[in-house]
Diphosphomevalonate decarboxylase
Amino acid sequence: MTVYTASTTAPVNIATLKYWGKRDANLNLPTNSSISVTLAQDDLRTLTSAATSESFEKDTLWLNGKEESLTNKRTQDCLQDLRGLRNQLESQDASLPKMSQWRLHIVSENNFPTAAGLASSAAGFAALVVAVAKLYKLPQDMSELSRIARKGSGSACRSLFGGYVAWEMGEAEDGLDSMAVQVLPQEAWPEMKAAILVVSDVKKDTPSTQGMQLTVATSDLFKERITSIVPKRFVEMKEAIENRDFPRFAEMTMKDSNSFHATCLDSYPPIFYINDTSKKVIRLVHSINAFFNETIVAYTFDAGPNAVLYYLEKNEEKLFAFLYKLLHQVKGWEPKYNKEQLNGFINTFENQYKDK
Ligand code: DP6
């Protein structure tokens, strides 16, 4: 019996304008548009292979070597849409194998620890949808497929593209216009880099789906965020990316992370994702920018305490010198600055900011 297979990888994306809130939980439609930067393929990614055959008896999923249930609604919603599209192809061409009727075996592996609190569901669902779409030889483009990945996990729709990506919230009730589009390919602004500061590898206490529902239901600040703050910022952040304007992009990224965490605090009972160490990172970033009298680095935090820093490659040495000295841990990195120069920097910095 023939077994058909296809594989793909999907990278993690980190939002710089946060998706937080659903207007329709069933179709996973957001209350606001969002923007993210997709990390490079060889950094954090999910590798997924999908196989199908007439002889398979049931759908199965292995995640990082462990068999997982494939019965959860989100995965089922994605598979149902993909099978529906395959079925359309089969009804147009009777010679095609009837894969839409067959069971699937899916194997998925992250190259980073799932428990590190990094957006693993985004890469996971993106890879699942693209792998099955490849297996089924679907003609749909990435934006069309992103509508399906969205049903798996909202943020997943953005991981179908590399570079700088917008998820347009759309207006239609059926969600047909709620999909991801690329704002700029990675090659168009390749100097952008991301560093992840793992503050804690403990699993987050309030899962994002649950957290955002609580915010929508209880936060007054949230209403202000989605009606007046985010729509304007969405347009401006896209502009900043198109113009490769790092200081503007960075300022909006930090403000949006703060605005999102403020709505978490304004939820009732409040949700705390960032902790004291995260707050130290926030202060440090502002101090570094003040020290250089220029915005060279931005922080952002998702639904957890780990920081993602965005900076331009040309500033990596400067930035890491501080992180190295002050946080004492930058894996696999040694400063290239000569010791005297580095200590000079840090001493001035520490004297200037010792009370902050
Ligand atoms: C803070 O995409 O995980 O990372 O759609 O319920 O699966 P569900 O939520 P999810 O939420 C991500 C929230 C966020 C912000 C973002 O990625 O935009």
